[in-house]
């Protein structure tokens, strides 16, 4: 069942960060370094999708079932760190008390999953990421932002 959770989580990240892209329109003074941060941040989401479905010739059900999300989680950690960077250049890194710890807990959980390398913990992480991020996006965020 976890193979369904990972694509759902990545899709949710892509959709929410597409929404965040619209907030860049409020930046009045633009520079190349801001543009570079934006491009690297946006490009990291492409890398996240590639890590989800790597081009390594997985063609059989056994190969797909044996897929381990280690590269996806490493890429996710990079995406989260770049999200800190793009939020900081917009001057909103500490505008809410929850953003840094909320994102940090995902980074730490991804790190623990990579360290343990357990299929069961990968499944837990996939479903936790999907359900908690979805809940945050549709419910919690409405009341605290």
Explain what the structure shows.
This protein is mostly helical. It has one domain (2-144). It is built from six helices and no strands. Helix 2 (32-52) runs antiparallel to helix 4 (70-89) and helix 4 (70-89) runs antiparallel to helix 5. The model has no long low-confidence stretch (mean pLDDT 82).
Q: What's the structural domain tally? A: 1
Number of separate helices: 6
Order of helices and strands: HHHHHH
What number is the mean pLDDT?
82
Gross morphology: globular
Largest sheet at a glance? Answer: none
Query: Runs with pLDDT <50, length 5+?
Result: none
Pick out its properties.
145 residues; mainly alpha; 6 helices
Task: Break the fold down into its secondary structure elements and pairings.
Elements (H helix, E strand, L loop, with lengths): L1 H20 L10 H21 L8 H5 L4 H20 L9 H18 L2 H26 L1
Please summarize what this structure is:
By secondary structure, this protein is mostly helical.
């Amino acid at each position: 069942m976890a193979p369904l959770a990972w694509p759902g989580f990545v899709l949710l990240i892509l959709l929410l960060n597409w929404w965040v892209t619209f907030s860049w329109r409020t930046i009045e003074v633009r520079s190349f370094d801001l543009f570079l941060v934006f491009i690297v941040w946006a490009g990291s989401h492409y890398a996240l999708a590639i890590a989800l479905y790597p081009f390594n010739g997985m063609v059989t059900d056994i190969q797909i079932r044996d897929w381990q999300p280690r590269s996806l989680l490493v890429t996710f950690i990079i995406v989260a760190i770049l999200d800190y960077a793009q939020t900081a250049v917009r001057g909103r890194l500490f505008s809410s008390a929850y953003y840094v710890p909320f994102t940090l807990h995902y980074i730490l959980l991804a790190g623990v999953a990579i360290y343990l390398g357990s299929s069961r913990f990968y499944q837990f992480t996939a479903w936790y990421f999907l359900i908690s991020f979805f809940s945050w996006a549709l419910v919690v965020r409405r009341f605290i932002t």
